[in-house]
Amino acid sequence: MLVVCQNQEINEALGAINRAAFYQGRTLTAAVRVSADQPSIADDPEIASAFYGAPTVITLFAPKGHFYGDADCAVVAENMLLAAHSLGLGACLIGRAGEAMASELGQKLQKEWGVAEDYEARYHVVLGYVDGELPKPKPRREGRVKRVS
Ligand SMILES: Cc1cc2nc3c(=O)[nH]c(=O)nc-3n(C[C@H](O)[C@H](O)[C@H](O)COP(=O)(O)O)c2cc1C
Predict the structure, then answer these.
(1) Domains in the chain, start-ordered, CATH in brackets?
(2) Which of 75-78's residues contact partners 24+ apart within 8 Å by CB, and which partners?
C-alpha cells in the first residue's frame, strides 16, 4: 500500500518527526555520514526535515509483522528511485517510517488516509526536482564483488 502526499504542511511536520527519530540516541560520527557532496541529515544537523523539503512524499506500508514486508517495500522503493532518476527527478529513500507513522500525527494520518490498522509504514520515498547539479557518483569500492567457481 502506497500513499502519495503532496500536502506541504503535512510533509514538513512528518519530516520533522522523522528527523527527530534519526537523532534519538544517535550521535553524528563518521560511521553514519553519507555524503559531503550532497549532505543528508546524517551529515548536517542543521537540516530541519528528513524529507529535505521535497514536494512529494510517498509512504510505503506493509502488513504488520509480514516476514517480507521490509524487503517488499524496499524493492518497490528502489524501482521508484530508478524510474524517478530516468525521468530526471530527484528521489531519496528515507528510513524510520515506522517511527514517524507511530507518532500521534502519523497515527492520525494513517486513519485519515484510510490505511488499515494492520498495516505499518516501512519506508518513505521523497521526490522533487533537483536544485543544482547532480552529485557525482561515488567511487566504487574494490573487492566488493567476488567471483567464485
Ligand atoms: C534502508 C535505507 C534507508 C535510508 N534512509 C535514508 C534517510 O533516512 N535519509 C537519507 O538521506 N538517505 C537515506 N538512505 C539513502 C542513503 O543515505 C544513500 O543515499 C543511499 O543508500 C545511496 O548510497 P551511496 O550514495 O553511498 O551509494 C537510505 C538508504 C537505505 C538503503
Answers:
(1) 2-128 (3.40.109.10)
(2) 76/2, 77/123, 77/125
Q: Is residue 100 in contact with ligand 1, taking CB distance under 6 Å?
A: no
Q: How far is the CA of 22 from the centre of ligand 1 (A)?
A: 12
**Ordered strands of the 90-94 beta sheet:** 2-5, 56-63, 119-128, 90-94
Q: Provide the pLDDT for residue 139.
A: 85
Q: Can you point out the beta strands (E) in the chain?
A: 2-5, 56-63, 90-94, 119-128
Quick check: CB of 136 below 6 Å from ligand 1?
no
Using the predicted structure, report yes or no on whether residue 35 has a pLDDT greater than 90: no
Q: Give the Cα separation of 122 and 101 in Å (integer).
A: 9
Among 58, 124, 134, residue whose Cα is nearest residue 90: 134
Best of 57, 93, 124 for a ligand 1 pocket test (most atoms within 8 Å of beta carbon): 93
State in Å: Cα 74 to ligand 1 middle: 11
Cut 0.85: pTM above it: yes
